[in-house]
Amino acid sequence: MTGRHIRAIAVGIACILFVASCLHAQQSNPTEYQVKAAYLYNFGKFIEWPAKVSTAGDLFSICVLGDDPFGVTLDKTIAGENINGKKVVVRRVAKLQDAVHCRILFISSTEEGRLKEILAALDRTSVLTVSDISQFTRRGGMIQFVMEANRVRFEVNLSTAERDGLTLSSQLLKVAVNVRRSPQPGD
Amino acid sequence: MLRVRNYSIATKLTMMNMLVSGAALVIACLAFAAYDLISFRQSMIHNLSIQAQMAGSNSVSPLLFNDPQAAESTLSALRAARSVVSAGIYTLDGRPFATYWRDGNDQPLTPPQVPAGETEVHWFKDGQLALVRSIVFQGKPTGIVYIRSDLQDMTLRLQRYAGIAAMVLLASLLAALLVASMFQRAVAEPIVHLAQTARIVSRDKNYAMRATPTGKRDEPDILIGAFNEMLEQIQERDGALRKAHDELEQNVQERTAQLAASNKELEAFSYSVSHDLRAPLRGIDGFSLALLEDYAGRLDEEGKNHLQRIRAATQRMGLLIDDLLNLSRMTRAEIRKEVVNLSALAHSVAEVLQEAHPERRIEFRIEDRLEARVDSNLIRVVLENLLGNACKFTSKRASACIEFGKAHCNGSSAYFVRDNGAGFDPAHANRLFGAFQRLHGTSEFPGTGIGLATVQRIIHRHDGKIWAEGAVEKGAAFYFTL
Questions:
Q1: Which of residues 153-192 of B touch A (CB under 8 A)?
Q2: H or E element, residue B477
């Protein structure tokens, strides 16, 4: 057995180990943001937008405002997917004006400081606002990711969503950890 | 089943009716039950499929948002469906997501995969119906629902069906029995009645019996009519036969009486004639003798000769009359049968004959120990005549040989008397036994021609037969049976 042979075998074993670890990573529990990416996409299936929004354009854009915590996972999740016949795309937006045309807007926790400004700007624009900023639904957001026993779950502020003309399916509300129906006093 | 053949037609008819209606009902019930079960199965499958669809579509959001509790609360709605034993929601890669057990136990369920290209499969196994359906949401498979149901409803339905079928069967068999008994009266009863009548007729030979017609224009009635007609014909034929028989009997009796009367008359006549003839003959003979003795001196030789001839003729006539009287006596005499030693009788007759002809050499060959049940007096007459004839017709032989014995021919035996004498022409054999019939001249062999007639009469009276064989100059043989 020559040195070349040994190297070829070593490379082969390395390859196998790499592929196996990749498969393992996929099989094993997904990361928090993989789950959140999937949820972002799945929200789109259980929510109806008002007609003026749903008929305009042929893209369904999921936007991320602020620092993107997803990396490539969001792009991977929505790659090739459709919602109601519209191609799903990911857009990272920096300016608020660009966010107005999104269907779903994920507000990164880096934007917590100007949250009030953001939500005010998006008022009545029928953009579904999602974030994992704490007290997000209390502060006028629509869906907030919460961690519960190591599982990603979400809260819904139904009145805010309905005020913006969004219809959330009962199926979605059924699995929400908490559904707020009227603005909480002290907001 | 073999015994069924011996049952009466009424029982057979009833049985047939019951069997036919029973079989038809059983088949109909089975068909209904089969149809109902098939449709019930289909509706079961359909219901289970709907339940699976509902559970599946209600589990989409729990699946997508990883909320097993929500899925389980969805599944627990199946509690309303009592037949559902267990249900489970599985993720696409086959991991159990939520389960439901009707009876509370919490065994894990491992569902088979839904085959590619199909959304739903179901199968019956171990008394359960299992159904697997892939959960499709917005055109994309999202998970798998697996639901199992027991067949208690079907079993219950089957039991209810069996109960109803048994009741219907019982009721319709009773109805069939009723109908059969009604038809039995119309069909079987006339035939049973006919059979009874036929049995009585053949047992009692009573052809005056008649079967009662049904009065309807059906086959049993035709049968009864034909049977009665046959009886009538038999009766008529019987009557005609009896009448013919009676007439014949009467005719025979009348004829026999007539014959007997005329026979008696004839015999009486011939007896009296023969008897009355003797008196004048005696006169002729007596006065001829008186003439010969008293007037011998006055008569020349020719006159004496004439008188001699008159006397010879009258004596011959006397012999003839004696024989005739004999013959008629033989005919009338009562027969007293006893065992007679024929050999001894023949010997005694032969002795007499030998003494009568001392100058002749006659050899008698008489078989020993011949016995028969006959009238001894009459049979002596037979032997005297036959042996005497033999002696007479062998007179021209230097040495005569006369045999008496028993011969066997054609399976029966006959006595015979055979000689080596003059014999006779066989062409005239039938004339031998007639009265006054002679085949030889009186000058050649003396005789009256009555002997064989007497013999024949005696043999006939013993219910026997007599016949002769012989040829000219070759001797004669007389056979007789007794």
A1: none
A2: strand B476-480
Considering only CB atoms, A45 lies closest to which of B62, B66, B138, namely: B138
Q: What CA–CA distance (Å, rounded) separates A113 from A115?
A: 6
Show me where the domains of chain A are located. 1-29, 32-180
Q: Which two tokens stand for residue B291?
A: 């003439």
Strand partners, B141: B136
Residue B177: what pLDDT?
86
What is the predicted ipTM? 0.79
Identify any residues that bridge with B403 across adjacent strands, giving them in sequence order.
Answer: B365, B418
Structure tokens at B98: 């939520």
Chain A touched by B98 (CB under 8 Å): no
Report d(CA A53, CA A90) in Å as an integer. 17
What is the secondary structure of B1-58 as a DSSP string? -GGGGGS-HHHHHHHHHHHHHHHHHHHHHHHHHHHHHHHHHHHHHHHHHHHHHHHHHH
The residue type at B230: M
Residue matched to tokens 């919460």: A146
- Which residue in B54, B57, B61 has the most chain A C-beta atoms within 10 A of its own C-beta, making it the best mutation to test that interface? B61
What Å distances lie between residue A94 and A144, B180, B440, CA to CA?
Answer: 21, 100, 185
Bridge partners, B470 (sequence order): B476
Cβ neighbors of A161 (< 8 A, separation 6 or more) are: A47, A128, A142, A143, A168
Confidence of residue B447 (pLDDT cuts 50, 70, 90): confident
pLDDT digits (tens, 9 = 90+) for B134-156: 999 988 889 999 999 998 888 88
Instruction: Name chain A contacts of B67, Cβ cutoff 8 Å.
Output: 153, 174-175
Cβ B376 vs Cβ B462: under 8 Å: no
Mean pLDDT estimate for chain A: 83
Distance CA B447, CA B437 (A): 10
Q: Contacts of residue B65 in chain A, CB cutoff 8 Å?
A: 39, 42, 153-154, 172, 175
Cβ proximity of B133 and B54 under 8 Å: no
Distance CA B264, CA A40 (A): 158
Q: pTM for this structure?
A: 0.54
CA distance B339 to B362: 29
Please provide the CATH number assigned to the domain covering A32-180: 3.40.50.2300
The residues on A that touch B, with CB distances below 8 Å, are 35, 38-39, 42, 45-46, 83, 151-154, 169, 171-172, 174-175
